[in-house]
Amino acid sequence: MSSANDMRPIIVRRAKSHARPHGNHSWKIAYADFMTAMMALFLVLWLLSSANKKTLEGVAEYFRMPLKVAIVGGEKKQPVAQRDSRRGPGRHAQGRRSRACA
Question: Does the predicted TM-score (pTM) go above 0.70?
Fold first, then answer.
């Protein structure tokens, strides 16, 4: 075997860590999501402002019909003009006044 004088020191070479960027840049993703949502909102607002009355009524009817009725089939809700007007403005079916009219 070798003596204590013959032993060479063990040299461990480790890879140098590369510099990381400073700061937290995750806000950019949230900001990009926000800007995308704002762009979509303004696009919808612009399209609704340039649509004619017939198109607006079609869009309103699309959102008025429940999904279950659209899939299964059946009667749609009555148009606004044919609904029961005995409740009066600002009243729910149970007879309570809505918060907006109070």
Answer: no
